[in-house]
Amino acid sequence: MKLSIIIPTFNSASVLPKALGSIVSQTFTDWEVLIMDGVSTDDTLKVAQSYDDSRIRIYSEPDKGIYDAMNKGLKKAQGEWLYFLGSDDWLLNATVLNQIFSNDIEKYDVIYGDVESTHLDQLHHGEWDMMKIKYKYNICHQAIFYRKKIFKKIGLYNLKYPLLADFDFNMRWFFNTNTKSNYIPINPLAELNNKRIVDK
Questions:
Q1: Is-contact 5 23, C-beta < 8 A?
Q2: CA separation (Å) from 144 to 30, 63, 130?
Q3: What ranges do the domains of the chain cover?
Q4: How many whole angstroms separate alpha carbon 184 and alpha carbon 197?
Q5: Higher-confidence residue: 126 or 184?
Q6: What is the structure's pLDDT at 122?
Q7: Which pLDDT score is estimated for 193?
Q8: What residues are paired with 58 via a beta bridge?
Q9: Which of 42, 104, 162, 186 would staple 13 via disulfide (CB 3.0–4.6 Å)?
Q10: For 148-170, what is each residue's pLDDT tens digit?
Q11: Is 65 helix (H, G, I), strand (E, B) or coil?
């Protein structure tokens, strides 16, 4: 399997359909979805179970927050590549994954692109460099595809950072001299001038 998409959920019934709908509509089909639910008390599980697709797997158990759920998901993932999608995020159109995996990515451990965030009212984009790190600019995890083996190389998300474990993890792979990464600017919607991967 090429790609495992991990979606942490907790009381996400109202937003999960848009996230899952954006995945099942992809022209790229070599994926699985792991829904890592933190024992929701709403209809999150019913929503997830309503998708009659064997590629969608559902787990519900207590967790210590989103990064704990992500760690649990990556341990269960069967894909060569991992992608973490928020339950209230969605892929911008049906060709995004195909555009990513049609690139020559086999020599990389990490590939990343751009994210449009409506609640932050800005486009997170561009290649990561020392200047951006200096000013505490992070890459949104919704813009990053990780080869699964990188987690064996540099470890899991560190739960002592409940809000910034993704930034900590990004710093670890960025400064690891044995890790190869590549920035892929793509334009999923031909009518848009800005390059972006995920909308939120």
A1: yes
A2: 17, 23, 18
A3: 3-112+140-183
A4: 10
A5: 184
A6: 55
A7: 38
A8: 35
A9: 42
A10: 999 999 999 999 999 999 999 99
A11: coil
Q: What average pLDDT does the segment 33-51 reach? A: 98
6's CB contacts (< 8 A; 6+ apart) are 33, 34, 36, 69, 70, 73, 74, 77, 82, 83, 84, 85
Kindly list the distances between the CA atom of residue 39 and the CA atoms of 48, 125, 200, in Å, as whole numbers in the listed order: 13, 34, 24
Alpha-carbon gap, residue 68 to 199, rounded angstroms? 24
Q: Which two tokens stand for residue 86?
A: 């928020």
Structure token digits, residue 81: 């590549």
pLDDT band at 84 (very low <50, low <70, confident <90, very high): very high
Whether the Cβ atoms of residue 62 and residue 38 lie closer than 8 Å to each other: yes
- Both tokens assigned to 95: 């060709």
Name the residue with higher pLDDT: 11 or 122: 11
Alpha-carbon span 74 to 66, nearest angstrom: 12
β-partners of residue 115 are 124, 198
CA-CA distance, 24 to 31, in Å (whole number)? 9
The whole-number average pLDDT for the span 41-52 is 97
Neighbour-count burial for 28-42, b at 16+ CB within 10 Å, e otherwise:
beebbbbbbbbebee
Longest dimension (CA), the chain: 46
Strand 81-84 versus strand 122-124 pairing type? unpaired
pTM, whole model, 2 decimals? 0.88
Say what the pLDDT of residue 141 is: 80
